[in-house]
Amino acid sequence: MQRVAVVLFNLGGPDRAESIRPFLENLFTDPAILRVPGFIRSWLGRFIARRRTPTATENYAVLGGRSPLLELTQAQAAALQAALAGADAEYRCFIAMRYWHPMSDATAREVAAWAPDSVLLLPLYPQYSTTTTGSSIAAWTAAAQRAGLAVPTTTLCCYHSDPGFAEATAALLRTAHAEARAKLPAAVPLRILFSAHGLPETFVRQGDPYQWQVERTVAAVMARLGELDHAICYQSRVTPQKWLGPSIEQELKRAAADKAAVLVCPIAFVSEHSETLVELDVEYRAEAEKLGVPAYFRVPALNSDAGFIAALRDLVLQARSGGRALRSFAGARQCPKPFGGCPHGKLRAGAKEPA
Ligand SMILES: C=CC1=C(C)c2cc3[nH]c(cc4nc(cc5[nH]c(cc1n2)c(C)c5CCC(=O)O)C(CCC(=O)O)=C4C)c(C)c3C=C
Ligand SMILES: [Fe+2]
Ligand SMILES: [Fe+2]
Q: Which ranges of the sequence are coiled-coil (predicted)?
């Protein structure tokens, strides 16, 4: 029986207070994040990380000094491996985090030691961004080479409007909406705020398809929910540049002015972590109260939701049988032409997609 290594990509998070600064250094010295010439990046990245450490430390203190992302990703990996048992091959799930352990080099060595016949790269980012999935693919490719791992590799770039993923998200949202509605007086309107991690606008102008894909996800989810008041907004701005808007703060102000309660749905995170458990659950909840938003509710992240794991299993099986080295959830490229940051766009003009 063929052996297939499924490598789950996520960002990673510090495992204790002392890891926060080196984690941030790894993040801010990534050329996909800090887009300045190499000779400045190392120095500037470490400087930004040092400046950011106190704020991040305060956030992680709320979570006991560490990120829960690794444990949640391990649970997803175990659930996916169980869901793939008995399929056409022997599947084993591995985790490669981008900025904290286990990172690509260690995982690539572990995968090589298992001696798979092929590898399948599976981002835990439904929408492709050059800063997340793109950066993880680059790190994995280099690490696999160093580990001498030279087996055929299939890369799933995105599943922004995959029916299984959209339905799993819609199901959680449907339940949360009904629960919130039941707690509100009939006269108070309820607005869904789809909140995605932000991105500097320049990255989108340079061709990053993330915003386009976030909008596709929201359209796919809303197609399953019907006519409900909703808006897209962006959270977690980190640098002084102009980031995608509207920000979640702007949407909370608009909700307060409209006297509408809000139901915040994290749309670009599939796991709970500091940006859901601290930013959304503590900081923006307090901000909403201060602004006079009548009520604030939040949809949980998918984590190991059975519908989500089933969607990932289907994506893995489709990718395995699809015969393409690089594929979207639907097989071929989905992003419109201007988004040159889409990995399909990086294929040389006129070249055939690798088989
Ligand atoms: C320029 C900075 C950043 C960009 C661009 C960015 C994009 C981006 N990030 C995620 C998902 C996650 N980010 C997480 C943490 C995190 N991200 C940044 C900066 C940028 N992210 C920082 C500085 C941090 C550390 C926390 C902090 O200081 O606020 C995490 C993990 C957090 C955890 O608790 O483990 C995730 C997940 C996406 C989806 C994205 C763009 C599409
Ligand atoms: Fe981030
Ligand atoms: Fe794409």
A: none
